Amino acid sequence: MNTPLPDVPEVRVVGLPQLTQGFDLVERLDLQMHLKVHGPLEPVSGERLAQLAEEISLTGRGGAGFPFGKKLRAVAKSAIRRGVRPVVVVNGSEGEPACRKDTVLLNRAPHLILDGALLAAEALGARTLVVAVTRNSTEISIRAALAERGLSDRRGQQLRARVVRTPERMVSGEASSVIRAVNGGPALPPGRRVRAAESGVGGAPTLLSNAETFAQLAVAARIGSRRYAHTGLESEPGTVMLTISGAVARPMVVEVPTGVPLRYVLQMAGAPPQPQGVLTGGYHGNWIDAAAVHESVVSKASLAAVGGALGAGAILPIGPETCPLGESLRVANWLAAETAGQCGPCKLGLPAAAGGLADVMNGGGPAALEALREVTQAVKGRGACKHPDGSARFFASTLSAFTDDLAAHVLHGGCGRPTTGVLPLPLPGYEEAEESIPSGEKIFIDWTLCQGHGLCADIVPELIRLNPDGFPSVADAVVPIHVQGAAQRAVRRCPALAMRIEKVDSPAAPRPSRPELPSSSRKELGSGRS
């Protein structure tokens, strides 16, 4: 059984709604209904907006959890120092199969997200707003919302706004991938870590944050920090949006104040009374057991204290009737297939880890388990983006959370339970990015000819970097189709004629070799005046 989540699942709320206010009235709040429900919103100065974010302890809701006020100040400082106008980017790219909270907000409350983004743009003096989305429904909704406000990308407007579509992939939602896509490139991490606050869209300082983060900012700007803090924990005030799926009777997105017991939220969705395990934070998160569920509340600190993670707000319980290692293997295979193919830890390490987990499950014994631990450890901290680290976290958590099942598979050849496939994954044939398709070619360098000119690293940095000695280091990876042209230019422009491209035998995708087990102005801020 594998049932992907719909774009907009059932939405519930615990306590008084903030982000989901008005959801009981209409399916989607257009601008007129949005203003009736939430009221008008006046601009806020940059300093006051940063203070507001700090007073409510607002952090990014996309998983990284970086303080929003600190990010806002960094962008403002960089823009002033460089004398350029910054750019504001709403990251609505939600490529993880277990997450739907941002999709729900973009579909049902797009103007609340735009309120927060336009507040930030007004405060920073930005003249460009970009909204990145992954799905048809979100693109349609946000384009309609921009049109309702009279915003477009036409020249001559005080603020130009546009929508950028990114592929529905795990790596496409990372901040660097979004910025690269906005700049006209592939939605893949560039491999070079450059702070968006310094150089983002078009090289300008860029404020990029998650869709829910901007919606939370809009709520706080309306009601003030004191009233905002009346909801939730003192240390983590406000509400959070959670996506509950897995072994539940009713998959849902729920808005819940911080501090609410996690077991209560799971009961709302119809989770098993004693789950075998609960995956917290999504597929880059951590497993916790039933005892930890009863000890924890919905908050970053509480979940971290029991070995969990809030992350992007995905919570996935599994029941006692399924094999937890089999469920994890399904996710591991998907994570390995989601590789950007740009570095060894991602292209080689993740498929090897997924294959190692399959070996353990198929009776490989202690040697297979030790090999799996080694390859998981080797992946950490070496990737060109965060995908290998997040995936390694998932592997390590699986090994530590299900020790009894692990012993049963290692020592006795299995646990005797089937894999029922309760964790949502995309169905075969879901939209895949062209960037993920390998060309079947590799770059090779003749070291007897190479003179270290370095032009190749400038032309195709996705595959070639310069070592400290000035000579190139070539990734041992098949050239993806989206950089095939750049790779050919690098070969042609090498002054020493030291480079060549050759066809190699490669699989259609970097999947594990082991088989998967069965299974603005005031108007722009929302006044509505023309």
Automatic annotation (TrEMBL):
Domain NADH-ubiquinone oxidoreductase 51kDa subunit FMN-binding: 55-217
All residue ranges annotated as the Soluble ligand binding domain in the record: 242-274
UniProt-recorded name of the protein: NADH-quinone oxidoreductase subunit NuoF family protein
Coiled coil: none
Family listed: Belongs to the complex I 51 kDa subunit family.
Composition bias, Basic and acidic residues: 521-530
Keywords: 4Fe-4S, Flavoprotein, FMN, Iron, Iron-sulfur, Metal-binding
Organism from which the protein derives: Streptomyces sanyensis
Signal peptide residue numbers: none
